[in-house]
Amino acid sequence: MSIQYPIDLHIHSTISDGLRTPAELYAQARDEGLTAFALCDHDTVAGVPIMQEVIRQETERCPDSPPLRYLPSIELSTGDGGHAHLLGFGVDANDEKLLSALCEMQEERAQRSKRMICLLKKQGIRFCCHTEEELTRPGTGRAHIARALLDMGVVNTMQQAFDRYLARGKCAYIARRYMSIADGVSLLTNAGATVVLAHPCRLNPDPQGLRALVLELMDAGLAGLEAYHPSASRQQAPLLDSMARSLGLLVTGGSDYHGDANCCVRMGRMPSGWKNPEEDFLALMEAVEKHRAQGM
Ligand SMILES: [Zn+2]
Ligand SMILES: [Zn+2]
What we know:
Number of strands: 9
Structural class: alpha/beta
Number of domains: 2
CATH class of the largest domain: Alpha Beta
Strand content: 5-15%
Helix content: 40-55%
Order of helices and strands: EEHEHEEHHHHHEHHEHEEH
Bound molecules: zinc ion
Strand order of the largest sheet: 2-3-4-5-6-7-8
Largest sheet: 7 strands, mixed
Shape: globular
Radius of gyration: 19 Å
């Protein structure tokens, strides 16, 4: 069972593969009654200054209502197949090392999209010039291609696009190389971020195996676990919560909302059982501020 929380620390915008702009998300977050949120676009920090500007304008427009609390963040793909996702809260969007690593990733991603489109064409799928150009821009990936296939009527769902063409081992799949999870934790930590392992159950549903991995990543600087995410069941979420607390780690929660209206993921909705999101959010903010102060 999932319930609505006032805090959502995992949201995607059009800056990566979400469907809503930062401004639309901010307005929606306000309408949904959120009090705090984090924009965590995949492998990019380009949305950070955009969201900051949105908030500046909103504050100017409505000086009497305090702006929603916002944490500049990123979701970095690492590990085998890029399946280990790290949330970097409070990331410095101007960190040069991070920016150059991200630039390399985006460029590689665009090259990969080009190769995947070639393979799809060999399957007889026709793309119009405009779509093809859009799909090979830096930063585009499999989700964009899947959505295009859905819009073109080639498949009936995004999942079908993956199952038929884009998943590992399927005819249009191209493997990518990713940095190790530990290297990702270090990269983000050095860029001022407080690093949390996203949707841990997706990475390893076995609690023993996950605990061993988490202990290893703590050496690299891992600071928390995203215990409350739609991928965790009602039973798994509290287990992740207590694993994090027993290891002295932060607990976070996020919906992974991508703006899809016809998808069960909703902004602010996560598994039930998160007892004190506000307290955990304040602990995260404190960790972010402390970490950023140490780096200065
Ligand atoms: Zn993710
Ligand atoms: Zn995500």
